[in-house]
Amino acid sequence: MFDHRLRALALLVALLPACSETVSMSDRPADDLLARSDLQLIVDLQTLRDATALSPFLNDPDPAVRSRAAFALASVQAPAALPALLRLLSDDVRSVRAEAAFAVGQLGDSTAAPVLLQLLENEGDPVVLSRCLEALGKCGGHDALHRLSEVAWTPGLLPDLALAVARFGMRGIFSDETRAFLFESLTADDPELRRSAAYFFGRMGDTGIWQAEAAEVRRALDLLGADDPAALYLVQGLGRLGAEEDADRLLAALTRAADWRVRSNAAAALGSFTDSERIRRTLLTTCDDPSRHVGISAARSLAGAVDVMSAAEIESLADRVEAGHDPWQVAAEWLRQLVAADRSDVVERWLENQPEENETARARAENALNPPTRRPPRRTGGEEEIPDEAGPPPAPPLDWTYLAGLGPRPRFELETEKGTITLELLTEEAPLTVQTFARLAEGGYYDGIAFHRVVANFVVQGGDTGERDPASAPPDPLRSEFTRLPFRRGVIGVASSGKDTEGSQYFITHSMQPHLDGRYTAFGYVIEGMDVTDTLYEGDRVVAARIVPGRSRQ
């Protein structure tokens, strides 16, 4: 049973220090793609989305070829490939089994669950087991979820199990036993397990699944404190729950947490409690938080409370905007509300005071004064999605000579107005993406481009080269290249509006976002300058983007 395993885990890890969230490298081994024309052919077929031509490679005597073909099919996502991929789950080579499990999960076919469960019973490799758990979370049904509770898990796999259970839950599949496992995991000694379990409560839109046991979530937050890795998600869940008894608990997180991400989540969560004048006063004070992310979240929560504000409170907001007391990103949250409250004059004067070069701020004010007709949403890093109904257009060709010059791990340096962010890119996992972004950087197309979308504790997004120069955007949408790099803190992904619609825009994650795994192209991670990333806000710009040829994986 889950509870016995957690007690065993406590004995094993009680002496380990707590750790902060770090970027997790991909667990996919290098395969010398840039020097092997046979593997390059497989990637070429992947970009063509030719599942029929890829399938024979699954039977190749070379395990590197079988692995690469299975990995390619994880992006192609052809249902007809499922039987062959399932056979590879019993391959003699563990790297092949891991790729097959990843690809099977990408198909989301529930008929694969029995074979995945059988693999769990016989597999001894932790990487393969992790991929298998991920796959079951994406495709398993109620029977598979029940079977997971019967497996004797090693402590190191419990965080993966918690994320798998969360994936089940987000598909509407849960049980009393697995829910109890998540509750108990919230106070486990392993911080990674606590974080993974808490993610479910922060991400789950339907709080009815756990509302009856909400006391367990409250107990965990009270016990762990606001700076625990789990707190990021627990405050989100309690805010969504909206119970009056949690208002003081969330206020404590807002005022005591050292981590700006927890404070930002708490400020957003308190938006459910703005009927209280005391909460509104605290949120107004929080607009001056040292982290502008927190101030923006507080301002946004206040903006949603205008209907319950007194005339004096609305006038106070108008006075702050008029005085230029706040950073423009904070004040901009109130512009529409001031227009609705017949204070367009304040917004007009605020617009006049914004410098011409601050195009983003001026656009916010102009949109408040003259709301635009609805436009199709920009490509995003995980919020607004548009299905790709017409099918993908022709894919850009891969230039293997150029990619060999970049090397397997080139560096992508973003010199911003706040400092430099250095990212390491994964050419072997996402060659088309790396090729495209490298050429855009070398051509200077990212220089001077603003970060147009920043969502606190989610992503900072930029690279909209077409906004300034439509001719600079990739002529055809890119192919999605789904990799085994999980979206942890500091991972760079490609924004899209559905599969195979990627372009020049990228995003960098503030914290782990497992719901993006396997749905957006992850192609590198921050190795220096995450502190700079944390200080980027909407409208900040890239001064210069550079590509430095890379090295082999050590």
Describe the structure.
The chain has helices at 2-13, 37-48, 51-54, 63-76, 82-88, 94-107, 113-122, 126-139, 142-148, 158-170, 176-185, 191-203, 214-224, 231-241, 247-256, 260-269, 277-286, 292-303, 311-323, 328-331, 335-340, 344-353, 359-369, 400-406, 431-442, 465-468, 530-533; strands spanning 411-416, 419-425, 453-455, 459-462, 491-494, 506-509, 522-528, 542-548. Helix 2 packs parallel to helix 4 (63-76). The two termini are 40 Å apart. The longest helix has 14 residues, at 63-76. The protein has a domain at 400-548: Cyclophilin, CATH 2.40.100.10. It is an alpha+beta fold.
Quick overview of this protein structure:
With 554 residues, this protein is of the alpha+beta class. It is built from 27 helices and 8 strands. α5 packs antiparallel against α6 and α16 runs parallel beside α18.
> Can you name the CATH architecture of one domain?
Beta Barrel
Biggest sheet: strand arrangement: 3-4-6-5-7-2-1-8
Strand content: 5-15%
The residue ranges in which pLDDT falls below 50 over 5 or more consecutive positions are: 1-19, 384-390
Estimate the global geometry from the Cα principal axes: globular
Query: How many E-type strands?
Result: 8
The main sheet comes to:
8 strands, antiparallel
